[in-house]
Design goal:
mainly alpha; Cro/C1-type_HTH; 5 helices; disordered C terminus; TransReg_Diox_bact_type; Lambda_DNA-bd_dom_sf; two-stranded antiparallel ribbon; Helix-turn-helix transcriptional regulator; DNA-binding
């Protein structure tokens, strides 16, 4: 099962780490406890829209950008789940692989493997 809160937490953590910021810095700026922000990043807590707005402001990231990245990850997770169930990527969803960045490998040669909690995209 794909957990939206886990995908959201992963994206928030990457955004923070890209900026080289600590949990303490972001939690202070967003006015949320460090422990709670940590639980949100680990996908253990559901963040309210108000909390997400405060975190996005603290990270200077538009919520729409955050949600777009979460949406892209969700789409890949769904593809991986489908591929795991059927053993291959359905032809009808192969055009979606055009957004996957695998240097030097055409989309038709990309295989998606889905471990229980992650999505890995590898060249075939």
């Amino acid at each position: 099962m794909i957990l939206l809160r886990r995908l959201l937490g992963d994206v928030l953590r990457r955004q923070r780490q890209r900026q080289g910021r600590t949990l303490r810095e972001v939690s202070s700026s967003a006015r949320v406890s460090l422990g709670y922000l940590s639980e949100v990043e680990r996908g253990q807590k559901e963040a309210s829209s108000e909390l997400l707005s405060a975190i996005c402001d603290a990270l200077d990231v538009r919520m729409s950008e955050l949600m777009r990245e979460v949406s892209d990850e969700l789409a890949l997770a769904e593809l991986a789940q489908s591929a795991a169930a059927t053993g291959s990527v359905p032809t009808s969803v192969r055009p979606m692989l055009g957004s996957v960045s695998v240097t030097g490998v055409p989309p038709e040669r990309v295989t998606i493997k889905a471990p229980a909690e992650a999505v890995d995209v590898v060249a075939a």
